[in-house]
Amino acid sequence: MKVFIVHAHPEPKSFNGALTRHAKAVLENAAHEVKISDLYRMKFDPVSDRRNFTSQKNPEYFKQQTEELYATEIDGFALDIRSEMEKLDWCDVLIFQFPLWWFSVPAILKGWVDRVFAMERIYGSGKWYDNGTFQGKKAMLSLTTGGSETMYTETGLNGFIDDILFPIHHGIFRFVGFDVLPPFIAWAVNRVGEEQRQHYLETYQKRLLSIDKTPAIAYPALADYDENFQLKIKK
Known about the structure:
alpha/beta
């Protein structure tokens, strides 16, 4: 497999850092290829505006999708954006590695999506969900939380983790065609001891080595929706 890890944590010594280093070692030892975009180390700029482009369709009024369409047509994306797009094209598996901050991804990772997932180049013109650009590829979240697993159940204080991750799973990964794998979650890493952290690393290793056998999260197909994009009622 060709695995692309987008890593979003500012501290290299963090457990997120340990997970990414472990993933690289495990996958390469199994003869897979790995590329990593360490966003903080790269000083990746998360602000999405004209800096995304070397071209200008309308210099008088900025509309991002218009500029993305034009940049796709003439290869007018900035070098840093083009490089990340090429990694997406290259990979078989995409992994986001991050700490859950305010029930979502860190801003630098959201900014990466805002800038890299460009209209027409990544989605658009019928390229979405089942027909997405990355159909046949897999994507997975690997994340850490501050709270315990019981806090993220359907009756837990923080709400069900599947609901929290749905905007990423469905609205980012699935939207552009990825088969979405169940997430790997290291719960309450700031509150557990070394033995539990080692257990997390071992569990993650098993997940990584079984990616090709792991069933994707089941989402309805486009054919299950009517012309108003409502799920058809089965009689």
